[in-house]
Structures are given as structure tokens and as C-alpha cells.
Amino acid sequence: MNIHPLFLQKNKPQKESQSKGGTKRKTPSNDEPQLKPAEMKRQHTPHQDQPLAERNRPTEWEDMIGQDALVGEEGILTKIVRRAEMNSENSRPFLPSIILWGPPGSGKTTVARLLGRKIPKSTFVQLSAVDCGLAKVREVMEKAANEKRLNTQRITILFVDEIHRFNKAQQDAFLPFVENGTVVLIGATTENPSFECNSALLSRCKVLTMKKLEDSDVERVLHRSVEKMKDITIDPSVIQQIAQIADGDARHALNMLETCIQLGEDQPEGNKLVGMSSLTSTLQRTGGDVDASLYWLGRMLVGGEDPLFIARRLVRFASESVNFILTKKTGLADPQALILATSGFQATQLIGMPECDVILSQVASYLALAPKSTAVYKACLAVKECVRSQPNLPVPLHICNAPTKMMKDLGYAKGYIYNPDHKGPVDQSYLPDAMIGHKFFHDDSADDTHK
Predict the structure, then answer these.
(1) Domain AAA+ ATPase: where (predicted)?
(2) CA 213, 209, 61: angle at the middle one, nearest 5?
(3) Distance between CA atoms of 292 and 428, rounded to whole angstroms?
(4) DSSP designation for 8
(5) Per-residue model confidence as pLDDT tens digits over 140-149
(6) 3-state secondary structure of 32
(7) Distance CA 32, CA 271 (A)
(8) Cβ 161 vs Cβ 188: under 8 Å
């Protein structure tokens, strides 16, 4: 995919904000808990000197994208906030302790901060397990206990980012305070809580899973950010490329967008999107242009691009556009493409720059000359679309395991044909009944334009 010029016009750089006395504005320390919702709200007001991802952090439930099960109109957190607002005058607000589990950039911190703003009669305190010890935790707990004694109607919401960084013994320190209601704990983690969080703590918390954002969700985030910028126009194909590279991480996507804005005109050699798109476009060309592939690879390496980023994209390309081409005589026409690309990635990891340049050149040259096919990629897209439109088709009983007598009585594994016991393929369906006969993979090797 060729990427068009990024920008028609770029904003003027922002001047560093200063106070009346000429001193730089002081940024609040992460170690200073903000004990009043109003203060917390002011602290998170976006400024132009903050990263784009922070400036565009959602401030209302309606601004959240891709997490409707939690914060949509009928989402569980939306209902909790409504109930707390309705009963705020007569009772202490209800909010269970929560563990937010999801991939990077899915909105865990944003959800926690929104809860701190939306729940009435609440004090929001944010800590990070990366740079916070138990002494700081105990200090926050002591302040929360004092506030509870002074006003039994208020609650303290303690948000601990990267809570899995605390070992299980350290997590024990939260137990008595969560159990007696001194604090409502909101933990955020990218790791499986059942492995990384104390079982006693988990039993006192509700685990809410935040899903990985789809590429379309990330594109919406990017388009919304661009709309807020003055005199900036970005081609939609660039937005699409950023979303694909970000792989569901909205923060990473916004950081890449900001980098493109800052470097797109002044340092074109450093623009990974232009370079990578030109390289993959050249590799994809019918017949393969080795010289152009090597040129764009060299442009990226000389421009300072991370060689591992290039290697990862070549591995993806090897599977998406090369590897699976079926032929009647030999089966897979080029089954070595993915193996070579993966070996190239590992070798690049081992020796690094500048020696890895010849390794990447070897992989790029091989992929440029290899036969091309997007049959598997198209099949993957077709499967995803099918699963989205019919997500809960039942598994056929005859291919279900039957480890118990009750399951056998219910018909599990009944009529199953064990393939190794027969010569050649057996007549047996493995798809759900509603999908029998459906084809996802279509061999495009007969099309001469792919060879």
C-alpha cells in the first residue's frame, strides 16, 4: 500500500508555558495523591505540552471507543455509576473493588479515572506499582482511614496501575483495607490476574476484562484526534497503516501519529510508515522488484529505524502475501518464506546493527522474488467476519470430547471417526451445522498474476 504525503500544513510549535514570574509550570508529582475530586480533575486537564495520547484521553463515557460491554449505554460500569448518582444524597456510594485486565492501550487507566470523576462523594488516588513501595501505600491507607472516620459517607478510590508488579506478599497489604471498606481498590494489569494476583485479593474484587481494540476502533480514535487539530490534513491510508501497526494499542497509535506530525516534514528518513509501506508495496509487486525492495530497506536503516520493527513486518509479510500458495504438483509452492523471515528476525535480534543489514537484505530479496498470494490473508478476514456475524454457533457434538458418562449419554463424541484409523480422508464434518459446506480458503495460485 502506497502512503500519500502526510500533511498539507503543520501547526506551529507550541511555546513552553511559563508562569507570570517567568518560571516553568510545575508538573504535579505522581507521588502526591490528589485527595479531592476537583483537584484530580484539574490535574488531568490536558495541556499542549502533554503527549497527544494524554491530551486526547476521553473525559466522558461517551468518548470511550471499543469497550461498550463496560461503559456503553447498558455497560456494567455505566449502571454502577447511575446507581451511585441516584443514591448519593442518602447513602454512601457503592462501587465494588475491581481488577481491570486488558492489553496495553485498551483504556484501563481512562476507565479508572472516569470512575474517580463520576462516583459522587469519592476521593481518587492514583499510584503505580512500578515506582511505588509499600510505605506509600500505607500512607494512602492511613489518610483514607482518617477521611472515613471524619465522613462515613465518603469513599476513597485507590487506583493501582500495573498492580501485577507487586508480588503476592505485597498485595497482602491491601487485604484488610479492602475488606473493611477503607478503600475501593481498582487495579489495572496486562497480565492474567489468576496467575499474577493474590487469590485472596481476587476473591474480594470483580475482574473486568477489557478487550483488545479492533483496527477500526483505533482508526476512529485517530480520526477523532486529527479532527481536533487545526490546519492538519492526513490521508486516510496513513490512518489505516498506523492502526494496523498499533495492533489494538490506542496509546501507541496516538504516539505514532504525533511522531509523524513532528517529523513527517523535517525528517522524512525517520518516517517508518512511509518507508515500511514503500517496502511492503515493492515486495508485493508482481514479479518482485529486488532493487526497489533493497532501496527502501536501506532508506529505513540509514534513517535510524529499529531493525526489529522491519524484521517483524517481514515475518508478517511472509505469511500474509507469500507462504501459502497451493499447487497441484508440490502442495505449498514456497513453504520456506516464513521460516526464513523468522530466522532473519532471530538473527537480527542476536547481532543487531550494523551487521544485521545484510540479514534483512537477504530476507527482503527472497520475499521480493517469491511467488505471491493473499489467499490465507483473505481467508482469515472471511473467518473473522463470519465469527462476528454468527459468534455463538454450537460445536458439533460428535467432535466434542466425552470424558464422563453423563457427556456420553448426552451424545458427546457419538459417531466420531478417528482419522488415523483410516487410510485417506474420512467423510466427516468439523464445522457447525449452519456452516457445513462453507469455504473460507480459495486457492488463487491458478491466477498467473500472483506467480
Answers:
(1) 94-214
(2) 65
(3) 48
(4) S
(5) 999 999 988 8
(6) coil
(7) 38
(8) yes
Query: What average pLDDT does this structure show over 234-260?
Result: 86
User: What is the distance between the alpha carbons of residues 199 and 431, in angstroms, rounded to a whole number?
Assistant: 38
Average pLDDT over residues 106-122: 92
The amino acid sitting at 325 is I
Q: Is the pTM above the cut of 0.85?
A: no
Among 77, 36, 35, CA closest to 60: 77
- Spatial distance between the Cα atoms of 335 and 341, rounded to a whole number of angstroms: 11
Beta strands in 88-180 (DSSP E): 98-101, 122-128, 155-161
- Mean local confidence (pLDDT), 333-351: 86
Rg over alpha carbons for the chain, rounded to the nearest Å, is 27
**Is beta strand 206-209 parallel, antiparallel or unpaired with respect to 331-332?**
unpaired
Residue with cell 488415523: 420
255 alpha carbon, distance to own chain's centre: 13
Partnered with residue 98 across adjacent β-strands are 186, 206
326, burial (CB in 10 Å: exposed 0-12, middle 13-18, buried 19+): middle
Q: Provide the 8-state DSSP code for 264.
A: T
| CB of 317 closer than 8 Å to CB of 283 | yes
